[in-house]
Design a protein that fits this description.
It is a single chain. The chain has helices at residues 18-21, 202-210, 213-223, 226-239, 244-256; strands at 69-70, 89-91, 98-101, 107-112, 119-127, 134-142, 149-154, 169-177, 188-197, 267-270. It is of the alpha+beta class. It has one domain (69-273): Sandwich (Immunoglobulin-like), CATH 2.60.40.10. The strands form two sheets. Strands 1-2-4-7-10 form a five-stranded mixed beta sheet, with helices on one face. A five-stranded mixed beta sheet has the order 3-9-8-5-6, covered by helices on one side. A hairpin with a 6-residue loop joins strand 5 (119-127) and strand 6 (134-142). It is globular and about 50 Å long. The two termini are 18 Å apart. Keywords: Signal. This is DUF928 domain-containing protein.
């Protein structure tokens, strides 16, 4: 599993010219991360949105292996309708395949096209970075939406599902099951990505408590908290469906992570509201 990129040290030599320049040379090693604040840390940069709702989101550099989208295929996946312009099944994640959150029970988003699928399967695994061993945290299936759109599932906060641990990596996947008689991996279309819960800086936490839900969008974007950001915008869009500024914000966020082909797709229901269908915890 890829490890976090290590930083680099830039040594600035101030010898005889030290007294002349007062060591005013810029620290070049900080330039690369000037727009990439540490998650959960205050960011002094002005990230105000314009009247169109555009918000700049800071995506952490770290990337992990994954498959956030798949195109149309033939064979067992014949229950899916797709086009060459729009991927068949897509997780709403940055190209790095990793999204950050402060939530113990985050909300996950994905896109499915028009389909006749038998079931959709959602899985969440805790992954040990050293041994690469995974442990099942949550696994469920449900009847999918037939119409094309963006669906979501909020991890249920009950005694059977532990909260996400801070700084722990989790891999999540969504699979489309076309054939009810065959639920083996070869007969399913699957996409997968990663989520990591991070600790939030106390100053940022205090700020979030004092501002409106709408203003939190800017804070989440500055801090690179992808899951918190999407969930907040989605909630506001559901509450205010005629607000074009919120729609523009949503489209802008997805466009920034190269998901512009599905940015205009409608938001469908949160599957937490539906009755799950138990399945065996095999991977």
């Amino acid at each position: 599993m890829p490890r976090e990129r290590t930083g680099w040290l830039v040594s600035t030599i101030c010898l005889t010219v030290l007294s002349l320049l007062h060591c005013s040379l810029p620290v070049l090693g900080q330039v690369h991360n000037s727009n990439q604040p540490t998650p959960g840390q205050p960011n002094p940069r002005d990230n105000s949105k314009n009247q169109n709702g555009d918000v700049k989101v800071n995506i952490p550099d770290r990337g992990l292996p994954g498959r956030r989208e798949v195109g149309g295929t033939r064979g067992p996946n014949t229950c899916i309708s797709s086009s060459s312009e729009i991927p068949t099944l897509t997780l709403l994640l940055p190209p790095t395949n990793l999204g950050l959150t402060t939530a113990a029970y985050p909300r996950f988003f994905w896109y499915t096209p028009t389909n006749k699928a038998h079931r959709v399967k959602f899985s969440l695994y805790q992954v040990n970075e050293q041994t690469q061993q995974d442990t099942l945290v949550y696994d469920t299936t449900f009847i999918p939406n037939r119409a094309a759109g963006i669906s979501s599932l909020t991890l249920p906060s009950n005694s059977n599902v532990p909260p996400l641990a801070i700084n722990q990596l989790y891999q999540w996947s969504v699979s489309i099951i076309c054939n009810p008689q065959d639920t083996s991996p070869r007969s399913m279309m699957t996409v997968d990505g990663w989520v990591q819960r991070v600790a939030i800086n106390p100053n940022v936490a205090n700020k979030l408590q004092q501002i409106s839900q709408r203003d939190r969008i800017l804070v989440y974007a500055e801090q690179g908290l992808w899951f918190d950001l999407l969930s907040t915008v989605a909630d506001l869009r559901t509450a205010q469906p005629s607000d074009t500024t919120l729609l523009n914000t949503w489209v802008s966020l997805l466009t920034q992570v190269n998901l512009e082909t599905i940015a205009q797709q409608p938001l469908l229901q949160n599957y937490l509201q539906l009755k799950s269908v138990p399945i065996s915890p095999s991977r």
